[in-house]
Amino acid sequence: MSRKGSDLRPIVKLRSTAGTGYTYVTKKNRRNDPERLVLRRYDPRVRRHVDFREER
User: Fold this and answer.
1) Residue 22 to residue 40: CA distance in whole angstroms
2) CA neighbor of 39 nearest in space, from 21, 20, 18, 53
3) What is the DSSP letter of 4?
4) What's this model's pTM, rounded to 2 decimal places?
């Protein structure tokens, strides 16, 4: 059984820009977001919302 959508929606790690090393794991659609993903999420180690950037 093949996974047809795994090429289009890869799993990516989002690492905090606050330097805490905290990460989120999510999927993204390569067709809609070909460049690196940047999302604003909560970092519990610094107790505030910061930018999380995609790492490869």
Assistant:
1) 13
2) 53
3) G
4) 0.83
Residue type, 7: D
Rounded to whole angstroms, how far apart are CA atoms 47 and 42? 7
Cα 45 to Cα 56: distance, rounded to the nearest angstrom: 22
Sheet holding 11-16, edge to edge: 23-27, 11-16, 48-55, 38-43
Sign of the CA dihedral 11, 16, 21, 24? negative
Q: Determine the Cα–Cα distance for residues 49 and 35; give it in Å rounded to an integer.
A: 22
User: pLDDT (tens digit, 0 to 9) for every residue of the chain, 56 residues total?
Assistant: 556 656 789 999 999 999 999 999 999 999 999 999 999 999 999 999 999 999 97
Six token digits for residue 39: 């999302």
